[in-house]
Amino acid sequence: MASEVHSTSARQAVLPRRRILLCYDGSAEARRALERVGEIASVVPCRVTVVSVAEPIYPNPPYTGYADPGEEQAHRRHLEEAAEDLRGQGVETTTLEPVGDPAAAILDTAREGADLVVVGSRHRGLIKRLLFRSVSAEIVVEAPCDVLVVR
What we know:
Layout: H1 2-14, E1 18-23, H2 28-41, E2 46-51, H3 69-88, E3 92-96, H4 102-110, E4 116-120, H5 126-131, H6 135-142, E5 146-150
Parallel strand pairs: 1-2, 1-4, 2-3, 4-5
């Protein structure tokens, strides 16, 4: 038994810390993604960045960096909720709250060195996906790393 514990510790010491980017908006789908990241972090050494993107009030320059203060506050609460959950599990966690187009902001963050992006998926039908843009679908297509879509 002692040798098994030793070999597991040695294996973990050799594994590099993975960088996981968790997209979190407080929805039921995002909570499932948070749970999955906790499961992954229990077996793979990692650092998690939790990102929640507030959309700007005005989508066109020069005012694109300003979100509704109430929306920013809600995103901040979501971030702290997710970060507290992960830290409670012993996971090294940071938060990020950009303002902008959600898919673009998540992809920009992923390009800074994420090994895995984890995102929840709303169960929309084909018509709704065509009419309303799917952030998770755009991330799957454009991400520079692996993407885990949690249902």
